[in-house]
Amino acid sequence: MATNNINTTAGPSTTAATVHNVHPLPIPRDGLPLMHPARTPPVLPWPDIGHLAKWSVSSYKFGFGAECLRDGDPDTFWHSDGPQPHFITVEFPRKVAIQKISIFLSWPQDDSYTPSTLAIRAGTGPSDLQDVRVATLEKPDGWITFDVSSEPDEDGTSFKPVHAYVLQVIVVQNHMSGKDTHIRGLRVLGPQEEDATDGDPFPWKSPEFKMYERLR
Is 121 in contact with 167 (CB distance < 8 Å)? Predict the structure, then answer.
């Protein structure tokens, strides 16, 4: 699979009390990353499918494991504790469509523990993962949401989803060449649900139903 670098630079940070946290972000039509400088997860149109998967990490300090990535608490974080590279593995029981990831990083709080380069891999199992995207981050502070694919869609305005059983987020490098890493939140997002149901009175719309809509 082809890879594509994206450069993202976070704007000025805001406090958790910022009023606009609860409103949906304006969604760009060109596939560019979304920057959300608040500590709370942004309201996005793509469904969070991470709860369908099994999560694991390459290493962790006691009390700072994979559960901190999805607990919704901006003050907790996954803290790696082992040799590089550090990575997060998300395994689904069935092949799913993955559109974007949304990741919470905080350079002001984590300094050299903050990732500066991420590689996204996907595949049918841990042994056949392929690079699908690389993201370069400059002192990020907040939630960053970007497509996992670098393949343009049919009209060339965005990117196609990746269909995979396994998604892996690899910390290729930290700021200031830090050894261990901190990631304060991670969400795996599916494609937007289509409004049209083609007249189906019982449409399979939710990610949970879509995983089992075809019987064998």
Answer: yes
- 96 Cβ neighbours under 8 A, 6+ residues apart: 49, 52, 163, 164, 165, 190, 207, 210, 211
Q: What is the pLDDT of residues 125-182, one digit of tens each?
A: 989 999 999 999 999 999 999 999 988 888 878 899 999 999 999 999 999 999 999 9
Calpha distance 139→122 (Å, rounded): 26
**67 Cβ contact list (under 8 Å, min separation 6):** 55
User: Which residues on adjacent β-strands are paired with residue 31?
Assistant: none
Q: Side chain identity at 59, as an amino acid letter?
A: S
Dist CA 106 CA 104 (whole Å): 7
DSSP bridge pairs for 189: 48, 100
**Which tokens belong to 95?**
């092949």
